Amino acid sequence: MNININAANPDEKRINKRQVVFLILKILITIALVLAALYGLNTKMADFLSAEQAAQRTQEQENAQLQADYDIANAYYPMTDHYDGQFQEIYEKRVKADYIFIGTSHVTHGVTPEEFEKSGKKFFNFALNGSNPTYYVWWYNSVFKPNNYPKPKAIIVGMDWFMFDTDWLWRTPEYDFKYLRTPGSTPSNVANTDVNSIAGAAAENPSSNLYKFTGKWYDTNAIVTYITNRFSVFTSRSRFIDLVLPEKKEAAAFVPEQKDTGRPTAPIIEPGGFRLDLFYKGYVPYQADYDGKSAGVVKTTFYQKEEDDFISLIDEFQSEGIPLVFIMTPEYLPGRDAPQFDDMLKIINQIATEKNIPFLNYNTDLVSDINYDYTNYSDWGHLDDKGAHLFSQKLYNDLNPILHFTD
């Protein structure tokens, strides 16, 4: 009798199919449980942070009654980094600036409002590192205006010869989700804020618009940035211990002092070399050793969309009746090797001419000794703290006849 040892057992096939189905179900259930756990953690972290912020705002309000000018003494905010401080001003409105600066890191680290305050007017530096025109279209229409920041008497716009290059200027909305609040959130100085008008703006601009993904579906870096900066469970992962084991803190008695600004007394240097302890109304010094040597040839790529978005932003400002001035902060000319500078400058000059906007260029017609002293710089393009104060003094003197700060 022949026995076929290779004959398949139908029952075994059925068993194998059942095992596959059960395995798939187990995987799906595991994924569902992980997502549910993340959702629960995210909700708990968001509630924890909200409660903490509410308690902090309550404490600040109590302190403000003891010392009316405590919050505005030096416009310093407890913050995680200097970007946090720049966004807080939009919500808290402690300065309520008459004039604002926007632009890239060359302005962030190169223009200090302190040198302009002798005019008696109020200034704030909203320039953000790596910001491009497309970013500022989002910032102005999704953050600045919906939160009813006072309309500026003028905007000083930082210009760069590489400003239309998104390879150089990397900032996207996803990067700043962790600094955002839902439009309509009550600021800590609620007594000085029209809450009803803010709530109205929130209805016109729902919070979902703030967190809209702007990257490409295949851009993994943009996707990761979106996820990690959108949800509290990721942005505040360092607070898990506080969430699980909250420390009981007793509120310290507030002792009013005329010169108490709340600033740290020791140097705080952020990653990248930014002096957070010297943050002043949006300005933050960039600290790095620089010997004046060239970093080699630097090139830029022109993207038409960035020029188009910049022009649309300028048109929007002008349609709202906001005077504009273009500035280009000084660069260390002996250390800069930029063969495309003149070609890119022609595009900028043409925009300034067509839009009838004054353009103060401190790398061409307004070159000074600042451009040739490397001790004023942290690299060929960024002024250090000493250089920023020198330049800001000069910029104030040049802008005053145009914008009439002292009138």
Task: Give a written overview of the molecule.
The chain has 407 residues and is mostly helical. 41% of the residues lie in helices and 6% in strands. The protein has twelve helices and seven strands. It has helices at 10-66, 82-92, 105-108, 133-144, 195-204, 207-210, 220-230, 232-235, 240-244, 304-319, 341-354, 385-403; strands at residues 99-102, 123-125, 154-158, 269-270, 274-275, 324-328, 359-361. The strands form two sheets. The chain has a five-stranded parallel sheet, sandwiched between helices. It has a two-stranded antiparallel sheet with strand order 4-5. The N and C termini lie far apart (115 Å).
Which keywords apply here?
mainly alpha
Overall form = globular
Radius of gyration: 26 Å
Major sheet: size, sense and barrel closure? 5 strands, parallel
How far is the N terminus from the C terminus? 115 Å
Q: Which spans have pLDDT < 50 for at least 5 consecutive residues? A: 68-75, 184-207, 254-261
Helix and strand pattern: HHEHEHEHHHHHEEHEHEH
Classify the beta-strand content into a percent band: 5-15%
What's the count of strands? Answer: 7
Question: Overall pLDDT, averaged?
Answer: 81
- Give the count of helical stretches: 12
Share of helical residues: 40-55%
What is the topology, as strand order, of the major beta sheet?
2-1-3-6-7
